[in-house]
């Protein structure tokens, strides 16, 4: 595809005027979000912003909960904790511990829950401000193993670890990153397969805030590990060797297929820029100039046309759908009339009709469900507590459609059910 620049999003205002939605009213054909439960995990802190983790079957739900140091609130070893919540009512089933001197807002990352070795038993894996990647037994909360993130310069993880089946060991592996650019692959039993750093790959002053991306980005039949940062991104082969490096803002990295060649495309940027690069070479496919600061984490074919859309929240209260093949805007919807920041959208079939809905949260405490094809508002829910992260879909009641787990800033988790 020929490299080009488009003023995406901003240049299609006239075409989008008919689908801009103001306020939170429900149009005909919408539904409602019903609160199922609210967890008893409050904190004197409205800055909790690491999302909830859940197993694929929705049976294991784990929330990272953090307190902030305060002279009037002595910290304990459970002020910062991973709390397993019962899917049926949100009751706390177990808690992990964090030393008080390691407890602050980023003490624990969003966890990943998975059966790594196929034995039917899941692990809960999270990075910690203890300079560690830690795995816990999902049933008991007991620590199973821990791996040091950086053996010479202590660090912590910000983005969620990624579970992937790399050709480096039996079973599935855990890919981790630290905020300072450390990267590693760990087996199901906690053995380190390889370590690397973005600095060693030629990037300096790196800050990594998103999860590692694992996909066959170059089309060779084997998966690669992609880690983005403020100064660039690095694509690692499965064995840890560097495939290629690209400089330029890459805090956000999403893998997708945007053309007809075997290689995938990587959508990268820092919120102010959006560029599609070829997964095999890093060559620019297209670049866009958004008229808003974007937050995004994934793609989906929300309108069923066979081509994926990138869904992004903006810092001034909107949600955008962007065509991944060229960067053109498809629709935009206002979900916060007051212009509250909207966090990275998540897609899920919340009504069981086979189509993907777009679910977004905003800092004003609102959760909004949008139709994936045109951005019309289907339902909203509001709680007067800030939200600083995305929702987690999980089928809590085994009815075949996911519920929505919302991490509020005060430490509590709210489970919502969408009904048409």
TrEMBL record:
Its main location: membrane. It is a single-pass membrane protein. SUPFAM superfamilies: Integrin alpha N-terminal domain (SSF69318). Residues 81-164, 181-337 form the Pyrrolo-quinoline quinone repeat domain. The keyword Membrane applies. Keywords: Membrane, Signal, Transmembrane, Transmembrane helix. It is found in: Membrane. Pfam families: FG-GAP_3, PQQ_2. Transmembrane segments: none annotated. One of its GO terms (cellular component) is membrane. PANTHER family: IG-LIKE DOMAIN-CONTAINING PROTEIN (PTHR21419:SF30), PTHR21419. This is PQQ-binding-like beta-propeller repeat protein. It comes from Halomarina oriensis. The lineage of its organism: Archaea, Methanobacteriati, Methanobacteriota, Stenosarchaea group, Halobacteria.
